């Protein structure tokens, strides 16, 4: 374990000692992410054998008797109760690098998304753990990736990484986990990213919502963190209410779309049908990239559904490839935000991914990835996720131009996400 106290549990919570990762209450110091995955299996009683695991999930129904009937029945927990420090020893364990290395000699960000998802779930289980039980009656799943903000452009493949995180807000059935990643370079840790995930608790069969322990902030700093998380929740509700799928664009946005439309009219024709592409521009229709994944049991989570981190990795890799093909140069991720997990993905499904460059500005590209599952037997399509990625390029990129009204709404949605990302990075 690398020795640095800049982001250690002891620095965040003075007077508290690190304990073994197998003690679920208190601060945990975990040597690698394989241990995290193994610990999650222990918490719910999952098996590494798929057929045995299916039987375990059936047996978990008996744990419903341990669910609280109201949040008042559960003891309040502190932020330090869920504090975890986990290490990714890329520097000290060279054999691990192959899994994380990309063709540009940096770390595959998609793998980092998988690890953050696992860590976020374990943090939430740490908050809700009952020492009197051998297994948790809760099924905790990722509901939303609120945001991931990058603090440096490159993650080095030969330097150890450290992640710290804890619960920062709790509702009745939902939990917010905030994580910080840093990397050891030149004798000190430097910031890599900050991430906020929102998890939801459900019953042992993952069918209905379940109550979780309330959170009791201690001290002014923790109260400020809790208050900011409440503000973030309010903003999420406001953004959902103002979604372009629910309400019309603002007057300013309508003017923007109309001006974009006027710029594409052929001035030689007195017609609204004659459209031409402005200089240094690309039609949105020509800025797409699609992919297909077959959902095998290998990618299942502890509840026998497809792992959310796997979905994020595949969406990110497709989105990045689309940004690279669009701009003709190497992109670096700036932010990931507003990933909503609408429906679980079943094993055996066909996962259809569609990536769209929906907004550009200067050296930035905003990419939206829509995922849906196709049941090969019933031929039914269902949207499961929508992902939003902001990339920075090495040069100015062409403007992307919508043609239809639907594309115009995608353009505005992309601009909203891009503007929000830039405000966070100012």
TrEMBL record:
Q: Which GO terms describe its cellular component?
A: mitochondrion
Alphabetical list of InterPro entries matching this protein: HOTDOG_ACOT, HotDog_dom_sf
Give the record's GO biological process terms. Answer: acyl-CoA metabolic process
- What keywords are annotated for this sequence in UniProt? Hydrolase, Mitochondrion, Repeat, Serine esterase, Transit peptide
Superkingdom as given in the UniProt entry? Eukaryota
List, for all copies, the residue spans of the domain called HotDog ACOT-type: 85-205, 285-397
Transmembrane annotation, as ranges = none
Localization per record: Mitochondrion
Main location per the UniProt record: mitochondrion
| Annotated signal sequence range | none
- GO-annotated molecular function: carboxylic ester hydrolase activity; fatty acyl-CoA hydrolase activity
| Protein family membership | Belongs to the acyl coenzyme A hydrolase family.
What's the protein name? Acyl-coenzyme A thioesterase 9, mitochondrial-like
* Species: Sinocyclocheilus anshuiensis
User: Source taxonomy lineage?
Assistant: Eukaryota, Metazoa, Chordata, Craniata, Vertebrata
- List the gene name: acot9.1
């Amino acid at each position: 374990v690398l020795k640095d106290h800049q982001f250690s549990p002891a620095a965040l919570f003075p007077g508290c000692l690190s304990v073994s990762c197998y003690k679920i209450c208190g601060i945990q110091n975990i040597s690698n992410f394989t241990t995290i995955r193994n610990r999650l299996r222990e918490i719910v009683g999952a098996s590494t054998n798929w057929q045995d695991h299916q039987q375990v999930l059936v047996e978990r129904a008996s744990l419903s008797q341990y669910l609280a009937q109201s949040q008042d029945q559960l003891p309040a927990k502190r932020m330090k109760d869920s504090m975890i420090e986990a290490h990714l020893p890329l520097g000290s364990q060279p054999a691990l690098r192959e899994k994380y290395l990309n063709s540009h000699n940096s770390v595959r960000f998609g793998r980092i998304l998988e690890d953050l998802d696992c860590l976020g779930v374990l943090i939430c289980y740490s908050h809700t753990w009952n020492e009197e039980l051998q297994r948790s009656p809760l099924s905790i799943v990722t509901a939303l990736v609120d945001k991931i903000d990058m603090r440096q452009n490159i993650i080095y493949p030969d330097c150890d990484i450290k992640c710290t995180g804890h619960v920062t807000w709790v509702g009745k059935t939902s939990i917010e986990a905030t994580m910080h990643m840093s990397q050891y370079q030149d004798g000190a840790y430097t910031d890599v990213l900050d991430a906020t995930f929102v998890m939801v608790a459900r019953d042992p069969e993952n069918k209905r919502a379940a109550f979780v322990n309330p959170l009791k902030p201690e001290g002014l700093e923790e109260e400020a963190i809790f208050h900011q998380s409440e503000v973030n929740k309010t903003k999420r509700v406001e953004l959902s209410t103002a979604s372009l799928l629910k309400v019309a664009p603002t007057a300013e946005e309508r003017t923007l779309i109309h001006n974009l439309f006027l710029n594409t009219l052929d001035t030689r024709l007195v017609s609204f049908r004659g459209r031409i592409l402005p200089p240094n521009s690309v039609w949105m229709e020509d800025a797409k990239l699609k992919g297909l994944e077959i959902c095998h049991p290998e990618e299942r989570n502890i509840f026998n559904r497809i792992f959310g981190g796997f979905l994020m990795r595949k969406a990110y890799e497709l989105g990045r490839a689309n940004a690279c093909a669009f701009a003709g140069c190497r992109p670096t991720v700036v932010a990931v935000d507003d990933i909503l997990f609408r429906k679980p993905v079943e094993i055996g499904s066909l996962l259809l991914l569609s990536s769209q460059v929906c907004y550009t500005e200067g050296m930035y590209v905003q990419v939206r990835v829509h995922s849906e599952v196709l049941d090969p037997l019933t031929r039914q399509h269902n949207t499961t996720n929508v992902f939003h990625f902001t990339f920075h390029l090495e040069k100015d990129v062409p403007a992307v131009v919508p043609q239809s009204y639907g594309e115009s709404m995608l353009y505005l949605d992309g601009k909203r996400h891009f503007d929000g990302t830039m405000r966070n990075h100012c």
